[in-house]
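Amino acid chain
________________
===
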Amino acid sequence: MAADLHIHSSASDGSCTPEQIVDMARSLGIRTISIADHDSVEGVERALDYGLRKQIEVIPSVELSSESEMGDFHFIGYFVDHKNISLQRHLAELREKRLVRAGKIVDKLTDFSIDLDFDQILADSQGGSVGRVHLARELIRKGYAQSVGDAFARYLSKESRFYVPKFLSEPEEVISILIRANSVPVLAHPGLLGSEDKIRFLAEKGVRGIEVYYPKHDPWLTSRYAQIAEELGLVKTGGSDFHGPGSQDNESLGSVLISDQLVEELRQEHKRLSKLLLHHYYG
């Protein structure tokens, strides 16, 4: 059996519910999945409960972003305690910042007579984390764009006049939050960083894994990141980064899978970190 450990649901910027994702995984013969929503754990409980009913292992996780002089980084915390108070506080702050950012983008669009329904955007997020993809869907509904990719290209990319920067934390803070939430912090899609030095820097700050297997990693990059993971003693993970039908990247669920052995190594790393966390707080 194999696993897809990078999936997004409707709790963030995916278009499928946690239940639909579990059903899709089951139909594809994938027995282990991880729904790693951006800045949200709203879908974790639903995925865990439904996965148990359908005999699909769901590893609870969350994807958090950071920003520093070295660039933007994404981290996935695997086996996260989604009820952790520190994590919940951080996510609440991020949700508020995302709402403010979305409102500013909508205001900029309005200035150019591109009128969006902000209430509809909020409804589309289903109480989760509001992101640019929700604005993209509203742009499509209102006839200003043909697809999510078209909406990003014309209105929502970093090069657009309507772009509003994210409000992000330093990588050290994000890694610390994930560790305190009893998860294994893994650097997502390192191929987008463009520098191996950044991986080594983040490993020194507490990152315990690399997403080696990723749709945009060619065979050479995949081999190189596997080698770096071995050199640094980091676990190797991977997944499709599936966002649902019609998404910007249009990746399919299960397009990238990792072995049961790698899942077990991730599980053992979580046990090791859990013991260290217990020792830190309780001696």
User: Anything to note?
Assistant: The longest strand covers residues 61-68. Strands lie at 2-7, 32-35, 57-58, 61-68, 71-78, 184-187, 209-213, 235-238, 258-259.
